[in-house]
Amino acid sequence: MRLKRQKTEPTGPLVLPAAGDDVILSTTAGGRIPARVTACEQGSFTVAIMVPCKPLSEGQLAALVLDYSDVRGRVRLRGAAVLANPGEHDLLRIENPRSIEILQQREFVRVQTARPVAVTSSQEPLRIDTFTVDISGSGFLLAGPESLKVGHELGFRLSLGEDVLPVTGNGMVVRIDRRGRPAVAIEELSDLERRRLVRFIFDCQRLERRRGLETGGRNGS
Predict the structure, then answer these.
(1) 14, CA 20 to 30 Å: which among 32, 40, 68, 167?
(2) CATH 3.40.50: does it fit domain 7-105?
(3) CATH superfamily membership of 109-213
(4) What are residue 188's phi and psi, to 5 degrees?
């Protein structure tokens, strides 16, 4: 079951992604294509597709939806998508962009925590045992390995602690950070698993706040 999130109607001015930001292009067939903003102009911006893929048809370009994060949460945006340069199917210009929905910010609360996670990928012959660097309701950053690349689809088994069932689901590598660490966006997760993951994140937040209060109290005594 695909991860469900609460939606809100767009309010306030549209904050477009900036040059260098990572985004996801969603097609009507359910495909999700990692891309990066390369340039921004008045009323339009250009994105480069970051993985090998077939040229998008006129119908796919017309129905293309772009996903990215801003301060309000996850924004889904639509505009007139055209080829930025004839003959370069992996470079698109999005003209007259408009937001169509915003996914609630609570899904994107992020906590820094090192949790064991096992991932499997069709591009890797063996299961990979690694650790998270941080976790949110929409995905997580992995400590490694460097063999994972943008566009790799993964199955994951995330440990939340001893005597607690792990969270299992599917995701995709959507970004590699400056230190070579892969960022995974959660693509499929059951409602029960999603609730368990969000509860774990908020438990981590409460623990961090409690530690902060205890440290502040000791320092102020």
Answers:
(1) 32
(2) no
(3) predicted glycosyltransferase like domains (2.40.10.220)
(4) -135, 130
